[in-house]
Amino acid sequence: MVEGKLGKYARSVSIIGIGATPFCNIDEDPDMKGLTEGEFFGHAALMAMEDAGLEPRDVDYFYHGSANPKFFNFAATPNMQVAEWFGMRGKGSVHHSEACCSGYVGLDEAVKDVASGAHDIVLTGCVEMACGLPVMGKPAHIRRTITTEDVIPDLEAIMDRAYTRALGGGHIGQDDWMDLYRDEYGLTETQIDDVLNTMSYHGRRAAALNPLAMLRTPFEEIAKQYGFDDPMEYLRSPFNPKTTQYLRVTGNAPSADGAACVIVCPTEMASKFKQKPIEVLGIGASCLELMQPHNEMEITKEAARQVYETTGLTPEDIDLLLVNDFVLCSQLLAAEEVGYLPKGEGWKWVMEGRTAFDGDRPINPHGGRTSYGHAYGASGMADVYEAVLQLRGQAGSHQVKNQPKTAMLRGFGGGQNCRIPILRTVD
């Protein structure tokens, strides 16, 4: 693996506005039913402008991301098709698609744009309507239910066609990294099950307090419906079956419809706007094709190395971590790989409740993918939205216990793409 190099930005860049829709299934949400993907994105974009105290005419350029626009929205150039929903007719823009890493890449591109001096005020956002599919020949708001038969062939599109797919390899190994961890540190399968169930439990505790989260019913209530007094008994039971060697149903992220946007500008200008600026100190990046063994671990390690080296920070400087954990194991494993939790000991911190939103080493205070929901391309931008809320102290009932100053996000998607931003409040 070849190491990358990350230089310092030519000028400092800060986040000044954020906006997000709830993550939901629009067919089951009376407030969202009938909206199109363009309306979802436009709603989040206008919220971000209002949050910053900006008008559409003030924004110089925008980035539009989604995991797979042709599949989920039957659109080849969606940025062109949504600009009028939020007052950006004629402004420059670009669409990008990096599977479930799209949101993190969107932040990276916007920050580099502003850091280069090309533009001063840039909006970047992502959207995905992942609970359904368009109906050919019908208006965009008419959608049909998505099926497993629809999804499986599409997942193959993230794999190299020349070798990986042709040789029968490449599907994301949901248990691969957990197997390595188990072998290295000698955990039993029961211990792993308890750790993952504990992460599910605390994620749902946070999501229950988060108005944007998709799954908000506490496990205590669900357990009672199945005749259990203890939610952990329910989580270990056949009513929550295993879908892989380690993951149970509650360890897999539910597909969601949703959008999120942020606005960035030079830090020297940021004090003119409504909110406390959140500086983007750096964003590490690494990618490995799915044929590479243990690629999630390797690219997480490399992206973290880059951003620590460039910013001069250490894991001890990080107060809050968000991990795109659509495979729940990643929450623990990535936290240890970036140094936020001690190697081989992080699972004990999970069991002690220290990584819960109200613990002293919080991870995913919005609920994480398995309770917040997974709108694929939009999930990373929703993580940025949450990190900014927490750094501002505006997360309400799910605000972390100790006010954070510095946050790290571990973005991962498509089984092969990683971005790791570090954000810090501007004094």
What would a concise description of this structure say?
With 427 residues, the protein is α/β, with parallel strands linked by helices. The chain has helices at 37-52, 69-73, 78-82, 102-116, 148-155, 176-185, 189-207, 219-225, 231-236, 267-270, 295-311, 329-337, 346-351, 369-372, 379-392, and strands spanning 13-20, 61-65, 92-96, 122-129, 132-134, 143-145, 257-266, 278-287, 320-323, 406-413, 417-425. The strands form two sheets. A nine-stranded mixed β-sheet has the order 3-2-4-7-1-8-11-10-9, sandwiched between helices. Strands 5-6 form a two-stranded antiparallel ribbon.
Overview of this protein structure:
- The chain is an alpha/beta fold and 427 residues long.
- It has helices spanning 37-52, 69-73, 78-82, 102-116, 148-155, 176-185, 189-207, 219-225, 231-236, 267-270, 295-311, 329-337, 346-351, 369-372, 379-392; strands at residues 13-20, 61-65, 92-96, 122-129, 132-134, 143-145, 257-266, 278-287, 320-323, 406-413, 417-425.
- A 9-stranded mixed sheet has the order 3-2-4-7-1-8-11-10-9, with helices on both faces.
- A hairpin with a 3-residue loop joins strand 10 and strand 11.
- Helix 4 crosses helix 15.
- The model has no long low-confidence stretch (mean pLDDT 94).
